[in-house]
Amino acid sequence: MTAPHRTDNGGADPAEQAVRDFAREWNAGSVRSSEDFLAEFDRRLEAEATQTAAVVVPVSAAPRWWWALASAAVLLVAAGLAGTLFRSSAPVGRIQFAEDRPSAAPADLARGARVETGGGGRTFLALDDDRIGIFVADNSALEVVDRQTVRLERGEVWTVVRPNSGDFEVLTAHGKVEVHGTTFGVRVDARGTDVRIASGVVAVGVGEQGGKMTPGTGARIVVDATAPEFFAVEQPVTPDWAMDLLARAQKHYTSLYFPSANPTVPRE
Amino acid sequence: LELQDAADGHLPPGTFERFRAGDGEAMRLLVRAYHVRLVGFARLFTGSRETAEEIAQETFLALYRQRGQVRDAEAVVSWLFTTAKRKAMREMGHRRHQLEELVAEPAGLERDGAAAPQPVGVLGSEQRRLIARALDQLGETDRALVELRYFAELPLHAISEQLHMPMGSVGVKLRRALDKIRRTLEDQGIRLGDIVQ
């Protein structure tokens, strides 16, 4: 044992004081350089602010009746067309269409990119060489974790995955949704996570607890739940905002390549 | 002045409100105030300073991204340590490191190849090793209590919330954990009066 050290413990339990001293020394000795750590965080914070600003999409009101003209089949075919025209060479994916800011797209998405539709607005992403199409509703935020995983922090996405093309996961604070080739939607709010499906099969889980759902079924994971709840829902479930967004994306790209075609999007 | 206060662990009034509104300077004050504790806490699970720093960086950035969902100041601090632990445990495959081995590592022999800072403080190297050994011998719950109380420096009610344990039980169990540490040290012939006066 080395020579005794003096510590002003103010009359505290010596065992507690010894552990407290140990912990403080441990913590202080764990950071290699505070200045380097803070400088590195500054760098990341600035990169984050730049990246977020680049993908914030302004709001635009959605026509309420357009979805009634569409169907899940049309959605799949059209998403495939957009994917073929604008095949991505980016390692993870790209923003295919940003409503009200069409000139900002297409824009590459790196691993870890954050897409936020701040005060409103909608955007359409494609991941993994267009295998996965993601429609992001307004007031939503998500992180592109990798080419087949997104983390939905708030809001709603409607997703189209090419059948038999591989896996895709949507993570939320409450659980996760795994799919293999289907059309489905996930919405996150303060009460939990909601899942709806239009085609195929989706697995919804919290940790190891979960189950599979097919069209006609809905699922909900409430905050702090240990397993999802499944229940019957009426079809169709494809949201009008996603159909409208796709129509606007098609109009934009048609105008871009065929200026004289002058396509229109139905309005109320 | 704000930077020095933050470095000392004191945040100026209104920092959390500014942070919630997206003020980058307020975020930097938070990082300055909590980064030492957070890196040290993460290193309990990673064993490596480099990995612990990376986890702390990611945790702070995740906090910034979710600033709109922050409830209050205490929730922020508690969230930081919960998130860092989850990230670290996932990174390390839920394996725990023996603190005794880590404190015995001489400078320059860090597993990540980085030069280890020389420990500074009131404890001698042998005392550090023996306290680390006593901590290693604690059970899972006792260890978690000690980590949150003395490494993260969380208040008892925050620990109660994190461990889903009644407030009264937190105090009692923490006291028992300290008694175990005292007995382990005394079994090795160590008188705490020699360490702490």
Q: Which descriptors apply to this entry?
A:
heterodimer; A: 268 residues; alpha+beta; 15-stranded mixed β-sheet; 15 strands; 26% helix; disordered N terminus; B: 197 residues; mainly alpha
* Shape descriptor of chain A: globular
Oligomer: heterodimer
What is the overall number of helices of chain A? 4
Distance between the termini of chain B: 34 Å
* Mean pLDDT reading of chain A: 73
- Please compute the radius of gyration of chain A using only Cα atoms: 24 Å
Q: Summarize model confidence as the mean pLDDT of chain B.
A: 82
Low-confidence stretches of chain A: 1-10, 51-90
Give a short account of the largest sheet of chain B.
none
Unreliable stretches of chain B (pLDDT < 50, length at least 5) are 107-114
> What is the helix content of chain B?
55-70%
Helix-strand pattern of chain B, N to C? Answer: HHHHHHHHHHH
Shape descriptor of chain B: globular
Distance between the termini of chain A: 84 Å
Structural class of chain A: alpha+beta
- Secondary-structure element series of chain A: HHHEEEEEEEEEEEEEEEH
Proportion of residues in β-strands of chain B: under 5%
Structure description:
- The complex is a heterodimer of chains A (268) and B (197).
- Chain A is of the alpha+beta class and 268 residues long.
- Chain A has helices at residues 14-28, 34-55, 72-85, 240-257; strands spanning 93-98, 107-109, 114-116, 123-127, 132-136, 141-146, 149-161, 168-171, 176-179, 183-189, 192-199, 202-206, 209-213, 217-222, 229-232.
- Chain A starts with 13 loop residues before the first helix and ends in an 11-residue tail after the last helix.
- Chain B has 197 residues and is mostly helical.
- In chain B, 68% of the residues lie in helices and 0% in strands.
- Classes of the chains: A alpha+beta (268), B mainly alpha (197).
